[in-house]
Automatic annotation (TrEMBL):
Protein's organism: Ligilactobacillus ruminis DPC 6832
Topology of the protein relative to the lipid bilayer: Single-pass membrane protein
Record localization: Cell membrane
Primary localisation category: membrane
Keyword Transmembrane helix applies: yes
InterPro entries for the chain: FliL (IPR005503)
Organismal lineage: Bacteria, Bacillati, Bacillota, Bacilli, Lactobacillales
PANTHER family given in the database record: FLAGELLAR PROTEIN FLIL
Domain of life: Bacteria
Cellular component terms (Gene Ontology): bacterial-type flagellum basal body; plasma membrane
Family: Belongs to the FliL family.
GO biological process: bacterial-type flagellum-dependent swarming motility; chemotaxis
Protein's recorded name: Flagellar protein FliL
Keywords associated with the record: Cell membrane, Cell projection, Chemotaxis, Cilium, Flagellar rotation, Flagellum, Membrane, Transmembrane, Transmembrane helix
Function: Controls the rotational direction of flagella during chemotaxis.
């Protein structure tokens, strides 16, 4: 009698297992579908980004027109030399005055901007002095990145003082701190 009771239970459990397998997700189809959608999305996103962002990049590079990585100037860009001058540096001890002798050149977009920079040389020198008088000798000479930071501050100060983006880059051609 025990055998008869177990047989119907075995049939029921096999039927339940079979229906459970049929109700579950079909991973054999789902995984390749996800992989294909991911690849298509990546390729499509790359193509769209390249198409739309390349246009913006070309506009940005055409305004500067630098030869990437070479440091050479394009035909339109001009360097405007700012005459050498001496600036008092900030100090904690008033009896220990420190100075910086500085000569810079400013990179501008074209000859028109170069003429405008020469016309506004007093404003440019004032902007440089305002940046430099806030600096201590240790700020300028502390590490290898400090001169790069100084050049960026000078560029920002010049552009801010002139009220427009005049200086693309500032080059320090002579620097003595005493």
């Amino acid at each position: 009698m025990d055998n008869k009771k177990e047989a119907p239970k075995a049939k029921k459990s096999a039927a339940i297992e079979e229906t459970e397998v049929k109700k579950g997700p079909k991973w054999g189809i789902l995984i390749p579908l996800i992989v294909i959608l991911t690849i298509c999305g990546s390729v499509g996103g790359t193509v769209l980004a390249t198409h739309f962002l390349a246009h913006n990049t070309e506009q940005a590079s055409s305004s500067v027109k630098r030869n990437a990585g070479t440091g050479k100037l394009s035909d339109e860009e001009k360097l405007v030399s700012v005459p050498k001058f001496v600036v008092n540096l900030a100090t904690d001890d008033p009896s220990n005055t420190q100075y910086a002798r500085l000569k810079i050149s400013i990179l501008v977009e074209n000859a028109d901007k170069a003429a405008e920079a020469k016309k506004n040389m007093a404003v440019i020198r004032d902007a440089v002095i305002n940046v430099m008088k806030k600096k201590k000798a240790t700020d300028i000479l502390s590490n290898s990145g400090s001169v790069t930071a100084l050049k960026n501050e000078l560029k920002d100060g010049i552009n801010e003082e002139l009220g427009e983006t005049m200086a693309i880059q500032v080059y320090v051609t002579d620097l003595v701190v005493q």
